[in-house]
Every structure is written in C-alpha cells, then in structure tokens.
Amino acid sequence: MQNLPKLFRYADVAKYSANPNVFLTRALKQEFVSRIAKGFYINRLLTGKNVLRIEEVACFLRNPAYVSCEWALNYHGVILQSPTVCTTITLSPSVGERNKVSYMGTTIEYSKISEALFWGFVNEGGFNMAGAEKALMDMLYLRKKISFKSEFEMARINGKKVAAIAEKYPQSTRKLLAELYGCDGAKDR
Question: Is residue 159 domain-resident?
Fold first, then answer.
C-alpha cells in the first residue's frame, strides 16, 4: 500500500501484486482503500479520513482534464451559488450521462472539447482549473445559453482578456458573450 499514490488505478495495483483482485478486495474490506469508480481508488493509508478535493478526483479520473464552467466560475467568485455539478473538460471520448461520477454528494460531469480549445487552465496543486474568463467561454460554448445572467459578478471578469479568448470560439458563442454584456461588447470592460 505504501508504494501506491493517494489516488490510483487498478493497473497501478497490478504492478505490485500478482493478484490485484484479491489485494483490492482485502484492502477495501479493511478500509485501507476506498473505491471512487470502477478501477479508481483512494489510498486511505496516505489520506486517512481526509476527503480529497472534488477537483482533484475529477481531473484524476479523466486525464488530461481541467475543471471549468459553473464550478470554476464559483471558484473564482464570478457566481456565488455553489454548483452541484463539477464540470470537467477533457479530450477523452468517455463523456456523457453514463460516465458521470458521484463523489462526496457532488456529480462530476465530463465534457469533451476540441484540442483547439483545450487550454486556458492552471495547475492548482493536484488539479487543473480554468481561469475565470476561459470558464465563462467554456460554459457559453457547452451550454449554448445563459442560464443565470443576474447571478454573474461581471466585475470579476477581465473584459479585454475574455474578448481575446472569445476570438477562438465560434460566432454563436461570441454572440452569447455579447448578450451577457448587454451587446456593448466585452472589450470596453
């Protein structure tokens, strides 16, 4: 168990055990590990009873990945309501309803994005988080609507930065951004 990291895969166990199924069954029974999803585990000898951050688990389950949309906007203080879904952007094709994961009462949802739009995030020590402006553009791009316009703290968004980011997105997404800014354009803010 000491050779395994705090988050590990079934394949990691196979490197250290001749029979990973027996090893994991015993470790689960003794509460040395916790199962997150099929083939993904937490090493409780390293984490104890501590709960790992949702963002860290989300980025571990699908790699490469970064947290974005409403979750990242809340993280940056752009929206104040706490989302119940952690949207994680990935290049992996394993997305959609059947690939959602529940962790600590929160749903982790995966959305695939093109490689051309897979950027604009920073490592926050264990997980990747989209910047506020990139998270806003990802949300408009993926949701194709503005759900809670009055909830945005737009003063926390750098208008020049979001306008530059928007140039890389389709016209329909840029239109939503203009609508969010009341058609006066993001560059002026």
Answer: yes
- Would residue 83 count as lying in a domain? yes
Query: What's the rounded Cα separation, in Å, for the pair 36 and 8?
Result: 10
Tens digits of residue pLDDT in 41-76: 999 999 998 899 999 999 999 999 999 999 999 999
* Distance separating alpha carbons of residues 21 and 129, to the nearest angstrom: 34
CA distance 120 to 113: 13
104 vs 52: CA distance, rounded Å? 9
So what's the pLDDT on residue 145? 92
Domain that holds residue 167: 54-180
Same domain, 90 and 61: yes
pTM: predicted TM-score of the whole model, two decimal places = 0.90
CA–CA gap between residue 95 and residue 132 (Å, rounded): 23
